Amino acid sequence: MSVRNKKRTGQLRVKSKTENLSEIRDFVNIKALEAGIPQVTVENIILAVDEACTNIIKHAYKLSPEGEIIIKIEYDKEKFTVTIIDYGKSFEPDRVPLPDLQKYYREHRVGGLGMYLMKSLMDDVEYISVPGEYNQVLLSKNIRSG
Amino acid sequence: MAEFSTSVRESGDISIINLKGFLDAHTAPTLENNFTQLINDNKYKIVVNFSDLAYISSAGLGVFMAYIESIRDNKGDIKLTNMSDRVFNIFDLLGFPLLYEIYKNEDEAIKKFSGS
Predict the structure, then answer these.
(1) pTM of this structure
(2) Which chain B positions have a beta carbon within 8 Å of A105's beta carbon?
(3) Which of A25, A44, B32, B33 is the most exposed place for a label (fewest CB within 10 A)?
(4) What is the ipTM of this complex?
(5) Which of B26, B57, B69 sits opposite A47 (nearest CB)?
């Protein structure tokens, strides 16, 4: 059924500045609502994308504001996928341990929380890193209708 | 641009910070400044009212992590109140209710400071 499974797409390209996070959230909001996703799930997807982009701005680009972030959205009736691409320092997600809050509290550490939220809020989180070329994080959410 | 603002009030020796709007990596420094200022003024009894907060990301949650220890070392605390279910869920997901006292409203939090 090609009509039923027709994919829709959208793309946003922004510079790696935290002030662009609100534009990114608005873009995801519009697309997720277009996809007919329930509000609570839309908010979870927005937060996951915010966390991914915040990590890119802070870690891949180390707060340099001239980096490029590309956010691609693709959805059909079954799945809503956000692909986020950057050209900064590559990221090794396996080296980020799940946060131990008590330890974080003692050590004043806050990194890693975003990664944990992304994994909790989305159905699938996948990283592809080609060092020196690009990094890509795929966040996907299954859409359950009804 | 995400809209975020804070305002600080006093109730006796307790300082109350109201949060409004969107607290993310861009706006978190505003709240950091509030905490820094209060600590500089030796005000360690702090209630944070979330009633007008629409959104929080881990960068916002991190602000509370960054200041709580020095505040508790000075016999103070950060108590959190008036969270929407949405914002509470994010705190809960990260296990924050184990680290912070969260109350339904300001009065409860203020009583906790004066009572015990």
Answers:
(1) 0.91
(2) 65, 68-69, 99
(3) B33
(4) 0.93
(5) B57
